[in-house]
Design brief:
Elements: E1 2-3, E2 10-12, E3 18-20, E4 28-31, E5 41-45, E6 48-52, E7 58-62
Antiparallel strand pairs: 1-4, 2-3, 4-7, 5-6
């Protein structure tokens, strides 16, 4: 589990339209931890370890704990 601390605007589809990011700052999420398909990377900012990932690596959003 983790907490979303920042999100981007989304991604573009093949026709150039923006697909909004389904995650919001402050949401608790569950993300995958193994497998070659995961694209997140670990970064450190101000002594805090963070994961930078695509919303596609999110398994689910904890709707009860936002």
């Amino acid at each position: 589990m983790g907490e979303v601390v920042a999100v981007g605007p989304g991604e573009y589809d093949k026709k150039g339209r923006i697909i909004p990011n389904p995650c919001e700052v402050g949401q608790r999420i569950r993300y995958g931890t193994t497998g070659e398909y995961l694209t997140f990377q670990e970064v450190e900012q101000e002594g805090q370890k963070l994961l930078m990932m695509s919303w596609k690596d999110v398994c689910w959003i904890d709707e009860d704990n936002q």
